[in-house]
Design a protein that fits this description.
Elements lengths: L10 H5 L8 H20 L9 E2 L14 H13 L3 E5 L2 E5 L2 E2 L4 E5 L3 E5 L16 H6 L4 E6 L2 E6 L3 E3 L21 E6 L2 E6 L2 E3 L6 E4 L2 E6 L2 E4 L8 E4 L2 E6 L2 E4 L4 E4 L6 E13 L2 E5 L6 E13 L13 E9 L4 E13 L1 E9 L16 E15 L4 E4 L6 E13 L34 E4 L1 E13 L8 E3 L4 E5 L1
Parallel strand pairs: 1-2, 2-5, 3-6, 4-7, 5-8, 6-9, 7-10, 8-11, 9-12, 10-13, 11-14, 12-15, 13-16, 14-17, 15-18, 16-19, 17-20, 18-20, 19-21, 20-22, 21-23, 22-24, 23-25, 24-26, 25-27, 26-28, 27-29, 28-30, 29-31, 30-32
Length: about 475
Amino acid sequence: MACGWAVGFARDALAQGCDGAFPAWATRLASQLTAMAGRLRADLKPWSGPERSARPEDFGYARGQPLATQAIQGAIDSLANEGGGTVILAHGDYVSGTLDLRSHIRLKVDEGARLLASLNLADYPPRVAKRPTVMDSNMGMNQSLIFAEGCSNISLCGAGTIDGRGTKANFPGLESNGGTPGRPFLIRVIDCQQVHIQGLLLKDSACWMQNYLHCDELLIEGIRVENQANFNNDGCDIDGCRRVIVRNCRINSEDDGLCFKGAAERPTEQVLVENCRIFSTTNAIKLGTDSQSTFRDVLIQNLEIGGPAADMPAINRRRTESGISWEIVDGGLAENIYARNIHIVRADSPLFLRLGDRGRVRPQEPRPKPGILRRIVYDQISGADNGARGSYFMGLPERHIEDVALRDIALQVSATDKPVPRQADIAEMRDTYPDAHMIADAVPAYGLWARHIDRLTLRRVKFSTRAPDGRPMILADLDTKNVCGD
């Protein structure tokens, strides 16, 4: 099997400045983020509110009625007027259009009950966010089944199901990087504090499953997401949120599995993702594509990620484009991002880093300069049954990705039977939409190709192929500086 270092990545160059140790900044970062995780676990608590409860049946709903919207909303509003409580969907199916959560309200869907999205678009009156964002400007996101804005201490929970019934037959539309008219989100939560999502099965949204924007103290735990019904079927999108935990969740999505965005133009900070299984046919776990703001202090650990297995629903394909995808392409800053103990399967590119220059902003804002992507660590990354494209890290000639460290990497990938491009023949693709498929078939190395990186460290990094592959295992262009490896 092919292996070894490449031209431009010579042993002499690797030895310069190398002392066999992991970079001091990476060791400090691991310690800092471990401490951050402990604080988040201690501080972020489940919903706590008054013990009073109400049911739609208390507000005139009877089984068999075509819509429960008015009765469920009546229960929400009544409890909110009394200071809060739990609205219980106890048994059977409740068909509803848009529901507006209020502060101190918990909506609980019990085992054996289902909240079903109405199939009539007229039941989703617009909810235009008070806070203008890039996503609102470009995608017109103003329809959803569950909506909350400016609330505190809210929860969605239970052992039941919330089903968007968002198949292409029920909610037709085209895949889009822009507007998605006629395809409501399942959940949209904006400018809220103390948000707790727990235990539910979230199924078949017509578009994104859940979007949390500009929220503080967001705890998502123990949910299962099946979103393989339509285009743009993201599993979970977190945008401009601070103090976040996502844990013990299982996500299977047609589009991005778990995605952090910067369209809110407020920093996403202090994020812990752990003990999850995340599968996607696009990007399993991603930072970007909208990256207009700051991403800082993110720890992801103890995950299995990749493409859907044979026994999981999948409407397009079985491989994910990338396993871990960190992207800064609209200005912005990402720093202090640590991934450890991650198992990656069925990924065409297990690792993907991109610093680009798409520059998408709101129409009235000036186009930003290229952003900053730095202090990125991959530690204890394993996996098998991955594709043949190869992982790659790609900055810009005038703005390099800085301080990237890999340690204890053992990834099995496939050998390519496609033509392999020369480094010089790969365009910079400054403003190309940043997915790993921007290079379609194969990068110049079967393991890792690096371009425009400053300070790249590799410790015990091994990619293996299941068949002979003529590419080197690792290749860096001559504009990648200060490379240290063993």
